[in-house]
Write a structure and sequence with these properties.
24% helix, 9 strands, nine-stranded antiparallel sheet, 6 helices
Amino acid sequence: MSPDSEPESAANPDLAAMRVGYAHQDPNPAVPEGNLGAESLRGGWYPLLRRWLDQARSSGIAEPNAMVLATVDAAGRPASRTVLCKGLSEDGLVFYTNYESNKARELAGFPYASVTFSWIAFAHQVTIRGSVSRVDPLVTEKYWHTRPRGSQLGAWASNQSSPIDSRAALEAQLAEVTARFADVDDVPVPPNWGGFLLRPDSVEFWQGRANRMHNRVKTTLTDGVWTAERLQP
């Protein structure tokens, strides 16, 4: 940097000034987790995550089940992208993808991942880390038949993560599979498509508070036992 150069942060005063105070997120005594603490996780991570997800869904915000999935490649370089959570239980979280996609290849090489739900409207965020494995094909089959036909055809048409010359070429692939299955009532599951289950061993809940004094509570699985602790913001 030359003596006359400004620090990079000074060149972006608009970004530096962007700030949400979260003062409107004062604790609500009528809500059990209104002031999130370790005691909020006495029932485990699942009930609270379910409650926050249901709150986001009932509010009408777009795709409340969207979560950022982070994986690493063979060189340890991280990659992240948004996927949709399509299954949630005490066993973990399920999402679906092409098994030949970048994310699936990375999970095959290092079957551990992190996902983050971010519900800004409620000053809520949840990060879940854990091991990842493919779901049983019967689980995939059951979910597949809940998908709209257009989404099923799209899964057949796209060689996910592979380069393609143009949008027209992609549309041509969709036209080809649409014609191929035109007389088929039930489109079958592609052989290279299915679900992954992330089994949590760490779940962190974040709740925005004024002056950046946020609530952070993390529960961790160690030797088969879940323990919870508060973290400093």
